[in-house]
Write a structure and sequence with these properties.
This protein is mainly beta. It has two helices and 21 strands. Strands 10, 13, 14, 15, 16, 17, 18, 19, 20 and 21 form a ten-stranded antiparallel beta sheet that branches. A four-stranded antiparallel beta sheet has the order 1-2-6-5, with no helix packed on it. A hairpin with a 4-residue loop joins strand 16 and strand 17. It starts with 20 loop residues before the first strand and ends in a 14-residue tail after the last strand.
């Protein structure tokens, strides 16, 4: 059932009164790593708006299919604590008035497992290269922050590769008995040279050879949604290229920290890494 609230108590200088605003939350009990779509309907024009979860602000976007609808996708971090919390809403209207409110949401545990990985000496040395990890983290993080108010997607995302899922989202990596990082995507094992497809249409915001992450492609799909593809053998696209869903963007490799040929595939929602499996071959776009 849709969750709707009538927001009252607006401080406004307009004589015609307070706006009617409804908030629809797609999923009020998400698990760690979920993406949650939210729709705002307002009788007044919203000039700007943010939704906050755990001190992270998410931008609100105009739904061009409706004159009164606004949409936002909220990424629930894999690091979020499983608990009852609140979504905080802040709206500014074109008449200069504002409104703030909060609504409850419950984050559930995804029960992520541990994963032990044995790296050969050469790969383990790369994994301990903190300078490269830091520099690459900044580069990739900057690309994840890309937010465009136009979007290139209209339906479910594709699997970028035919292969076996060898590691799932959120697993706590342990390399050669040394704790590593939490897995931020899904690994798909396949033969070296197998074609990798763009999961959705968009613009390439990164295409580079990296020491730790390997040959990497990142695609901006709009509204803060960015896909990432790591450990490629061959890069078939370059920065600022426009791609269509299903286009070949590269081939499978084992570059960077990889124990064998595979693709690390990830999705980010406004700089929050989410489980890509929930986007593929499913209805990723809200149908309110």
């Amino acid at each position: 059932m849709k969750l709707k609230w009538l927001l009252v108590g607006m401080i406004s200088t307009l004589a015609w009164g307070h706006p009617l605003v409804s908030i629809d939350i797609q999923n009020k009990t998400p698990i760690q790593g979920d993406a949650v779509w939210i729709k705002i309907k307002s009788s007044k024009v919203i000039s700007s708006g943010t939704i906050t979860l755990n001190k992270k602000n998410f931008t609100l976007f105009k739904n061009n299919n409706s004159a009164s609808d606004y949409l936002s996708c909220i990424g629930v971090s894999r690091f979020s604590k499983a608990k009852k919390t609140k979504l905080r809403f802040s709206f500014s209207f074109t008449d200069g008035s504002q409104y703030k409110t909060s609504l409850p949401i419950t984050i559930r545990s995804a029960n992520f497992k541990k994963e032990h990985i044995t790296l050969k000496p050469k790969k383990y040395k790369i994994s301990q290269d903190n300078t490269s990890k830091k520099n690459e983290g900044r580069l990739i993080g900057k690309a994840f922050k890309t937010i465009t108010r136009s979007k290139a997607f209209n339906d479910a995302f594709l699997w970028p590769l035919d292969g076996r899922i060898s590691s799932t989202f959120g697993k706590q990596r342990i390399y050669n008995n040394t704790p590593g990082w939490s897995h931020s995507g899904t690994d798909i094992a396949a033969k070296e040279g197998a074609p990798i497809k763009a999961t959705q249409s968009g613009t390439v915001v990164l295409s580079e050879s990296l020491r730790v992450h390997g040959n990497t492609v990142m695609i901006n799909h709009g509204w803060g949604i960015v896909s990432v593809y790591n450990h490629l053998h061959q890069l078939n696209v370059k920065m600022n290229d426009k791609v269509t869903k299903g286009d070949m963007i590269g081939t499978v490799g084992s570059t960077g920290i990889a124990t064998g040929p595979h693709l690390h595939f990830g999705i980010s929602v406004q700089s929050v890494r989410v489980n890509p499996e929930t986007w593929v071959n499913k209805t990723s776009i809200p149908h309110f």
